Amino acid sequence: MAGKISTAGYSSVIPTVRKNRLLGFMWKYKALYFISIPGILYFLIFKYVPLAGSVIAFQNYNLFKGISGSPWVGLEHFQRMFSHYDFLNILKNTLLLGIYDIAFAFTAPIILALLLNEVRLMLYKKIVQTIIYAPHFLSWVIVSGIFVGILSPSSGIVNVMLGWIGIDPIYFLGEESYIRSILVGSGLWRDVGWGTIIYLAALAGIHPDLYEAAEIDGAGRWKQTFSITLPSLLPVITILFLLKIGDFLDYGFERVFVFQNPLNLRNSEILDTYIYKAGLRQMQYSYATAIGLFKSVVGLFLLVIANTLSKKATGESLY
Amino acid sequence: MKRLFTRSMITLLVIATLAGCTSNNGGTNASNKTPGDTPAAEEPQKEPTKFSIAMRTLNVAYVEKSPDINKDKYVLELEKMTNTDLDIRLIPHNEYQEKMIQMFATNDIPDVVQGSGGISGPELAGAVQNGVLLPLNDLLQEYGQDLLKFIPKDAWDRLTDSKTGTIYGIPEVLSNPSRRATWIRTDLLEKAGKPVPKTVEEMIDVLRAFKEIGVEHPFAGRKNFKYADTIFGAYDVFGYNNQFKLFPDGQVKPSFFDAENMKKAIGLYKTMHDEGLISREFATIESTDFRNIITSGKAGMWSMNANELPIWGAQLMNNVPTAKVALIPSPIGPDGSGGYAHYNPVTRSFFINANAKDKAADIVKFFNWMVSEQAELFFSFGIEGEDYKVENGRPVLEIPTDTEGTDKLRYLNYWLWMVQDTTYNKRVSSLSETGLQMIDAFDNMLSKEGRRGIEFDPRLDALIRYPDLNPKSDELPPLILEHVLRMVYGREPVDDYEKVLEEYLSKGGREVIEEATARFQAKENAFE
Q: Could you tell me where the Polar residues compositional bias lies (chain B) (predicted)?
């Protein structure tokens, strides 16, 4: 039947032409459309419908009355968040951690991948690769356990080594000036190997002819890296960077929470941990949602800016 | 043809899956029925009451390891004795609050819900106020007379809306709310040549002596002063959720507003930290490390729940055969008393879903049975002939020494027995040496110590508005805790404590105190 419509569409009035052409197009590739239905449903049901739940940020949400029965309070929760005496400090911590994370945790896998790429001995390369991405499979609770152990002032290996060169033991986790380095460092240790996988895959895709040609032209390894390897990696780097920017304020709750104690709280309280403590533990869902919404909006904003900039500068973009 | 084949195969598969699912369900239903059916077939009794109940696992190993708690032989025995058919839904201990709230949010509420205290605990998510749970007054009058007799008034009060007098839950009680105790290694004390310390000054003296003879942790410290709050207790400045005090100026404030005593307490902790009498890294010592430090014999003195004596004592002796441990009266402060914050008199409570109205009478009867003689015997010893024997009319039980046996006893004594006085199990404890020691400590020592304050349940609204000022049941509010720890670690001078109080007041503390005073004067769900 639809087939009939499409043939009719080509000959009939102009405004309906486009519509009918679309239907015809869809009919032609009906199998493709059909198999995409589960995916579309998945995103609708699990990603877009829950988005509507964000409205509880503007309500005093009551678990038993639901969204329809809870009273609307407008921007009260946002006001409360911005007027919280510690808000600026929490935001500062979140931003700083985000920046450090991009500066170190984002660039480290690229450098590591480039270094690994230069390793000629395949067996050695494979072993190193396996060892460095194994920690990714540990949970943050375990990672924090390991770090608390090695940083302990009484028994930790770090302080034992500091002792050899005559430095008194330092209580790293009890010192607020070290906590950001520990957070970024532990993240680096856990995920740097895992992060190299995509880059290594991209590196494997570079055509060897390029290198051969460069060699004939007299380019050394440095020259080759800068003129061939890096430019070929650039699209991947840009895409990953844009994805990373999107959740700039989303440093992750668990990885920070497991390292927190009252002695380092001033430099380690971030939006995620605050949401957990103030919102979820005390059941202030609306308040927690308001903070979460703020985070997402900032993330979206940054993503759009970065994407536009990147499109203009490099031609690479997410959309 | 090929297409037809594929299609028919898919249809067949779908049907088979569906049939598989349904037959599976049928299978479990049938097996669920068996335990109930057998007694019904034997006796002309009425059908067993079938009801579902949500229970926290409480970290009880036996429960967590059980493949299906509803098929456990003790649960089956319990069902037989009470003519019920339980459908126990376990709630993981560590995710209790989240899972309970999820349960209420999705409206998937079992017939009986286990709470952990009063009617406004966070795990209930306001269910009482929203009419989700059944008022029990009439049912208790009719079917729960034994419960009404057994459970003391202050426990019932916690489950009663003080404005309307409606009872919403059945409490399990803790008759002796002073549960934590001070422990000391008497063998080390002997070695150091010191008597049992009575005051905090003597305690510091003993800790120094421990240090001298090489004890690694003279006093076992722990993160956030949890189970390491002996000194705060001596000076009566806990500041926990149930530790509000009426001050001379007529206002009800958290007890840490007693600046003079608070400064002395912080000062003592600082001394302990500076001299290494408490681990220099106690701010990051978690519960498992804490336990390991103690049971591996590295600690001289610590604080722990008294009913752990048989278990921790045995583990310590396993690792260090020469170790001797005793519960001693907690060191006293300037006012001549000491000890730890008293517990809520209600440990667990059971609520009935308003939708289970037609089963409610039988459910109340089930809980009423919990305080009977038969229940006491069953939950203390287990099944007659299998776990214990009766000789000369008296039950004889061999106290298990292996993990499996102790796990099972703990499960019966403490978890499956839903309504009891949970201070200690009298029947089992009186069979062993350490058990008798523990009973003695509870009855003659702990009952006389500890700190009691004013508690608001439901919590003050101001505390919910200002999470930083909201204390936990055994931790100072985050804002105060942070400053206190910084003072102990020498980052801030102890003399600045008044400034901390000012900060507390300016960041919402004024509202907390105003509300506390008003509610205390109006006697509105305020417990002393």
A: 24-35
Residue B289 lies inside a defined structural domain of this protein: yes
Using beta carbons and an 8 Å cutoff, which residues of A are at the interface with B? 62-65, 85-86, 148, 152-154, 171, 173-174, 261-263, 265-266, 277-278, 280-284
Q: What is the CATH number of the domain that holds B358?
A: 3.40.190.10
**Cis amide linkage into residue B331, ω under 30° from 0:** no
Going B287 to B289 to B290 to B291, the CA torsion angle's sign is: positive
The structure tokens listed for B92 are 């993981």
How does pLDDT run across A214-229, given as a tens digit for each residue? 999 988 888 999 899 9
Residues of chain B with Cβ-Cβ distance to A277 below 8 Å are 467, 478
The domain of B457 spans: 180-342+450-527
CA dist., res. A80 & res. A84, Å (int): 6
Give the pairing of strands B299-305 and B394-396.
Answer: unpaired
- pTM, entire model: 0.80
* Cβ-Cβ contacts under 8 Å for B63 (sequence gap 6 or more): B57, B69, B90, B411, B415
Length of chain B: 528
Number of domains within chain B: 2
Q: Looking at the structure, do residues B214 and B270 belong to the same domain, yes or no?
A: yes
User: Do B294 and B377 belong together in one domain?
Assistant: no
CB contact under 8 A, A154 and B280: yes
Q: Which residue of B has its CA nearest to A66?
A: B105
To 5 degrees, how large is the angle CA A230–CA A232–CA A237? 70
Nearest residue to B148 via CA among B171, B117, B114, B176: B171
Please tell me whether the interface predicted TM-score (ipTM) of this complex is above 0.90: no
Going through B3-161 in order, the beta strands assigned E by DSSP cover: 49-56, 84-91, 112-115, 160-161
Amino acid identity of residue A97, one-letter, is L
Answer whether A65 sits within 8 Å of B486, measured CB to CB. no
